[in-house]
Amino acid sequence: MAKPVMERKTFREELRNMVSGRVLFDEPMNRHTSMGVGGKADALVFPESSEELAKLISFLRSAGVPFLPVGNCTNLIVRDGGFRGVLVSLRNLRGKALRWGGDEAVLKVGAGIPLSEVVGLAVDEALTGMEFCAGIPGSVGGGLKMNAGAFGREMKDVVVAIALVNGSGIKSIAREELTFTYRNLDLPRDAVVTGAEFSLHRASRELVRARVAEILAIRKSRHPLQYRSAGSVFKNPASAPAGKLIDEAGLKGTRIGGAMVSDEHGNFIVNTGAATAEDVVALVELIESRVFEKTGVRLEREVKIIGEEEGRS
Ligand SMILES: Cc1cc2nc3c(=O)[nH]c(=O)nc-3n(C[C@H](O)[C@H](O)[C@H](O)COP(=O)(O)OP(=O)(O)OC[C@H]3O[C@@H](n4cnc5c(N)ncnc54)[C@H](O)[C@@H]3O)c2cc1C
Description:
This protein has helices spanning 9-18, 50-63, 115-124, 140-145, 205-222, 242-248, 277-295, and strands spanning 23-28, 40-45, 67-70, 76-78, 83-89, 96-101, 104-110, 127-128, 149-150, 153-154, 159-166, 169-174, 180-181, 184-185, 192-202, 228-232, 255-256, 259-261, 268-271, 304-306. 43% of the residues are buried. The longest helix is centred in the last third of the chain and has 19 residues, at 277-295. The chain is globular. It folds into three domains: 5-89, Uridine Diphospho-n-acetylenolpyruvylglucosamine Reductase, domain 2, CATH 3.30.43.10; 96-213, Uridine Diphospho-n-acetylenolpyruvylglucosamine Reductase, domain 3 (2-Layer Sandwich), CATH 3.30.465.10; 224-306, Uridine Diphospho-n-acetylenolpyruvylglucosamine Reductase, domain 1, CATH 3.90.78. By secondary structure, it is of the alpha+beta class. Strands 6, 7, 8, 11, 12 and 15 form a six-stranded antiparallel sheet that branches. It binds flavin-adenine dinucleotide. Flavin-adenine dinucleotide binds at residues 34, 68-76, 90, 111, 136-139, 141-143, 145-146, 148-150, 192-193, 223, 229-231, 304.
């Protein structure tokens, strides 16, 4: 039987030549996910520009190799059997530009910039609008795809346009044409966000800084930040916060292997040290069934679980 494309030496060489940033083969994803779990990706690659990314996507599409964009991997669980295909990290797309118009400014950033850096930039420039992102550990690209939010605001409230790359090249899409919902942005098939423009407003630097500090303090008091996690595991249903339902189902502190439902916040699963992805996934499934039994509510996952179960790859 012919070898799978990803295992062919010639394919791996072509892939390496196509990307000027790092190309890591058989890369353990527990080194990259905030949860610290995950098997090997066939390849994890770091393109350096949108143009390179566009060529890479059409190459992978024509070779029939599955791929998935990743940012900071803070909302991602890769199963222990790993990911068959190419994980495309946007980390090296790091452009930044600020355009003032009166008391408004448009901040244009690459998808690989961490949201924390955007918040820091907004503070330095005395701009309000991004404070809600303080403490969200994702990147601009992942933040947009997830429509990340906190404290009553979401990415959709600040974005004016995004840049993306898909099989047919690079394009810019205005806010009006984008469909954001709770923790999701609809994207065309195989589209990868390469950057965004945010609309921000002039404000007192001290006030913006104080709000950021306040948000970070609130998060520290509510979230189990001493452990590795992927943030909230489930979306909040309309009826009640997911954490409350999980608490009421008596699940706080429940452990499977090294994974534990945080006793501080029911919607966080934490890695107590040596969790595997399957421990985490088993705990996710246990929470889903227990909460349904107790409350009749079907929780919807916010974290993305990708890859293969061990032994099935
Ligand atoms: C301690 C902690 C606290 C958190 N708090 C919050 C919070 O308050 N609010 C909140 O919303 N989230 C929160 N999160 C979750 C997470 O940080 C966000 O979902 C974040 O937006 C994910 O960004 P990322 O770059 O890590 O994306 P990843 O985890 O790398 O990817 C997430 C998803 O986005 C897709 N994706 C990534 N980059 C791109 C791209 N460039 N183009 C297209 N698709 C892409 C991936 O394929 C995947 O489906 C928290 C996580 C942790 C660990």
